[in-house]
Amino acid sequence: MKVCKFGGSSVKDALQIKKIVNIIKADEDRKVIVVSAPGRDEIHDEKITDHLLNLATNGEHFENQKLFISIDESKFAIIKKFEKLCDDLKIDKKFIVDYLKKDLENCKLKGDERKAFFLSRGEHFNSKVITAYMNSVGLKTKLMLPEEFGFILSDCLTNGKVNSKTHENIQNAFTFKENEVYLVPGFYGVNEKNQIAVMSRGGSDLTGGELAYALDADIYENWTDTNGVYNVDPRVVSEAKVIPRLTFKELRLLSSKGFNVFHFNAMLNCKKSKIPINIRNTNNPVHEGTLILSERVPMEDLVGIAKLDNMASIHIQKDMLGEEIGFSAELLKIFGEFGINTYHYPTDKDDIAILVDQEDLKGKINNLRRQIEKRLKTNEVNVNYNISILTLVGIGLRQNSFAIVDAITALKEKNIPFEMFDMSPSKISFHIGVSQNVSDIALKTLKEELL
After folding, report:
1. Residues with Cβ within 8 Å of residue 196, at least 6 apart in sequence
2. pLDDT level of residue 54 (50, 70, 90 thresholds)
3. How do residues 247-258 score in pLDDT, each as one tens digit?
4. Residue 344: which of 405, 413, 431 has the closest Cα?
5. In this predicted model, what pLDDT tens digit does every residue of 324-374 receive, in sequence order?
6. Among 362, 360, 354, 364, which residue's Cα sits nearest to residue 384?
7. pLDDT digit string, tens, across residues 136-145
8. Which of 18, 92, 143, 423 is 20 to 30 A from 362, comparing alpha carbons?
9. Cβ neighbours for 442, distance < 8 A, ≥ 6 positions apart
10. CA distance 181 to 73
11. Which of 315, 294, 222, 187 is CA-nearest to residue 251?
């Protein structure tokens, strides 16, 4: 039995929805289907979820982005989108659109309860549209709404975490009658008070992962608009190739450094139960995509190189800091107080460097520097901006660390200096920091030499 999740680009319009129905029909093991809200299409520049958030915030969402889209315009865009979907799929729109209008116009909720309710409506109504269409073309489909079968989330209505009761509820509700497919809207659930709650953006991945885990699926297929996980960014290197097999650990390392193809939390329970995840392309279903596994035979030293731009390195120097108990803990505490996420901490006897997203420093760097100097009595604090981190990943590195030498040699031959080098404790990845203005050249150089 397979659980399949189709993201926003896969359900953005009638043409895409017809594609996913063909994919489901092509394999009778595809029994549980999770769908997102419609993504951007050629007519609508903004996602439906963003229009819904604009309604929930009384226009503040787009206003904060300096987009002049009123709540009435958002409401109009949402209704027209679902009307067009119904018309293009030749299904009766009155029942669906009437309930949509009622939800958009009569919501008396406030605060996070209002926000979560509106955010959930994209998936909620798209699932109704797709279920109606699938039944109309002879694919027996049962709509399973989270509020009805008990997809229970925590009380944080706008960033809900899955309650363990959810798994038992899923097992009791999904009985798998012959020739029947279950369709589930992703992203949202209810708390124990039966209030609508949503997960973080990208939460449809999470819905699919929890269903796969609870039902002990043979595989979790995640359908999107890319052939899989590429060994380098195809926008930078046109010769990039899809990685056929990755371990959960390798994907985690790649995704934390810019390979944003999958919500990591969605992998956790699948990893626990060793359920493979297959990332595939709705627009190219014959491609086998990338298979994410608990373990694999390392046939290559490296599988991919990620590039994370717009980083800054904060270099701190103080005599004997390496022997000062609690120095690093206090330093990281200061970063935490400013709400700044930290990445690597290359250290020496008298020096430590902290890598951060330089966007996080805007409006904070002066006071951050002041607190570091005041509380830690440092000798120097220097900030180096516009760094790119190239992360080379592969479980084969454990057996062949000479790939590190090859990488450094390749950069040297192209006269590309690097700002930082650091190997992970797991020995399956290492990080090279280069100036952002040469990062694309560095990525291409490493790909040509090592992949």
Report:
1. 113, 116, 117, 120, 147, 157, 188, 189, 190
2. very high
3. 988 888 887 655
4. 431
5. 899 989 999 999 999 999 987 777 788 998 999 999 999 999 999 999 999
6. 354
7. 999 999 999 9
8. 423
9. 388, 390, 411, 414, 416, 418, 432, 434
10. 36
11. 294
Rounded to an integer, what distance in angstroms lies between the CA atom of residue 361 and that of residue 346? 19
The pLDDT, as a whole number, for residue 400 is 81
Half-sphere exposure of 332 (CA within 13 A, CB side): 9
Residue 22 banded pLDDT, cuts 50, 70, 90: very high
Q: Rounded to an integer, what distance in angstroms lies between the CA atom of residue 38 and that of residue 3?
A: 20
Burial class of residue 183 (count of CB atoms within 10 Å of its CB; 0-12, 13-18, 19+): buried
Inter-CA distances, 173 with 144, 215, 228, 306, Å: 9, 10, 32, 41
Cα–Cα–Cα angle for 85, 21, 33, nearest 5°?
95
Q: Which residue, chain included where needed, has tokens 């073309």?
A: 137
Per-residue confidence band for 121, with pLDDT thresholds at 50, 70 and 90:
very high
Q: Which two tokens stand for residue 105?
A: 């116009």
Strands (E), 158-235: 181-185, 188-190, 196-198, 219-224
* Cα gap 144→148, rounded to integer Å: 7
Q: Is the pLDDT of residue 82 over 70?
A: yes
- What does the chain come to in residues? 451
Kindly state the DSSP code that residue 29 receives in the 8-state scheme.
T
- Name the token pair of 3: 């659980």
Q: Which two tokens stand for residue 42?
A: 């050629």
Specify the pTM. Answer: 0.88
DSSP β-bridge partners for residue 357: 311
Q: Mean pLDDT across the chain, nearest whole number?
A: 91
